[in-house]
């Protein structure tokens, strides 16, 4: 391994780092660039995979909504006081969850900025 | 057809146009990612993820930066996320650097102490130094790319250079 004199100025550092990092290009250049057909295939497959995942999520959401609606409706018909209590508990829970999420995200952002 | 025309077509949903764009920038992105990760195996994975992510986020590209800069921003964030989730273990990185060294020496490229010390840098410092000293981006641009403040970008470059200086003394 070689030992060169260390650069002093920013320009000297840039020149030296450029020279060193350029050596790695030999590795990148030896690998072939994928054909357009391959890239189209990869992108199309990913698009389809994403679409399938979205439909799956949407189905789960619809199912959950249907269960909630039916459950709520049954409860309201059977015992209205329990239904009102459940609504209150849900409201407080969701509000608490949202506030907590906001607080955690703010802390994480602050952490990244002051790193 | 200009690059902007191809971008417009890709944003309108033309997969072939996006494939053409990605093919044109493939070598640039791969060369950047290899310098960033210094890990040949990880490079291929990150380049592929970058291509796929660019398709998902293409509607957000507004031309404020060059398309190539936008692609390497995506690649950088994927790599930084990966290292934050500690998916790149130290021993794997050491093994990757050995493999890269072997590949370079097989192509008669000298492996220097400087390259060795670049490989030992913390990923976020290496990214900041690469963007500043190799690609010549400004600190506000680096901050935007690394999703941090300008001060953090400056300190990453500073401490990275200090790290190399100490290693090479």
UniProtKB/TrEMBL annotation, chain A:
Which keywords accompany this UniProt record? Membrane, Transmembrane, Transmembrane helix
Q: Which InterPro entries match?
A: DUF5345 (IPR035238)
Per UniProt, what is one Pfam family of this protein? DUF5345
Lineage: superkingdom: Bacteria
TM region positions: 58-77, 83-104
Entry annotated with the keyword Membrane: yes
Q: What is this protein called?
A: YxlC family protein
What is the organism of origin for this protein? Paenibacillus profundus
Automatic annotation (TrEMBL), chain B:
Q: Which UniProt keywords apply?
A: DNA-binding, Sigma factor, Transcription, Transcription regulation
Cross-referenced Pfam families, in alphabetical order? Answer: Sigma70_r2, Sigma70_r4_2
Q: Does the keyword Lipid biosynthesis apply?
A: no
Domain named RNA polymerase sigma factor 70 region 4 type: residues:
116-158
Spell out the InterPro entries in the cross-references.
Answer: RNA_pol_sigma-70-like (IPR039425), RNA_pol_sigma-70_dom (IPR014284), RNA_pol_sigma70_ECF_CS (IPR000838), RNA_pol_sigma70_r2 (IPR007627), RNA_pol_sigma70_r4_t2 (IPR013249), RNA_pol_sigma_r2 (IPR013325), RNA_pol_sigma_r3/r4-like (IPR013324), WH-like_DNA-bd_sf (IPR036388)
The record places domain RNA polymerase sigma-70 region at 21-87
Entry's Gene3D superfamilies?
A: 1.10.1740.10, Winged helix-like DNA-binding domain superfamily/Winged helix DNA-binding domain
PANTHER family the record matches:
RNA POLYMERASE ECF-TYPE SIGMA FACTO (PTHR43133), RNA POLYMERASE SIGMA FACTOR SIGV (PTHR43133:SF60)
What family is reported?
Answer: Belongs to the sigma-70 factor family. ECF subfamily.
Stated name of the protein: RNA polymerase sigma factor
Lineage of the source organism? Bacteria, Bacillati, Bacillota, Bacilli, Bacillales
């Amino acid at each position: 391994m070689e030992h060169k004199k260390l650069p002093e100025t920013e320009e000297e550092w840039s020149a030296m780092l450029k020279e060193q990092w350029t050596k790695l290009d030999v590795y990148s250049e030896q690998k072939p660039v994928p054909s357009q057909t391959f890239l189209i295939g990869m992108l199309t497959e990913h698009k389809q995979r994403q679409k399938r995942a979205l439909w799956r999520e949407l189905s789960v959401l619809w199912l959950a909504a249907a269960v909630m609606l039916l459950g709520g409706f049954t409860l309201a018909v059977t015992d209205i006081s329990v239904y009102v209590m459940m609504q209150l508990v849900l409201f407080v829970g969701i509000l608490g969850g949202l506030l907590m999420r906001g607080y955690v995200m703010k802390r994480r952002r602050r952490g990244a900025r002051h790193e | 057809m200009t690059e902007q025309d191809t971008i417009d077509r890709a944003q309108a949903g033309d997969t072939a146009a996006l494939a053409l764009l990605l093919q044109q920038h493939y070598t640039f992105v791969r060369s950047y990612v290899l310098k960033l990760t210094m890990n040949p195996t990880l490079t291929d994975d990150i380049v592929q993820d970058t291509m796929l992510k660019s398709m998902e986020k293409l509607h957000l590209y507004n031309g404020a930066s060059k398309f190539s800069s936008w692609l390497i921003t995506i690649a950088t964030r994927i790599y930084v996320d990966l290292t934050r989730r500690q998916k790149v273990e130290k021993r794997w990185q050491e093994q990757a650097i050995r493999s890269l060294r072997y590949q370079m020496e097989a192509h008669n490229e000298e492996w220097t102490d400087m390259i060795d010390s670049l490989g030992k840098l913390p990923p976020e410092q290496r990214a900041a130094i690469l963007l500043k000293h190799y690609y010549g981006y400004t600190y506000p641009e680096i901050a935007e790319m690394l999703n941090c403040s300008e001060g953090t970008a400056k300190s990453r470059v500073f401490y990275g250079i200090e790290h190399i200086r100490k290693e090479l003394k």
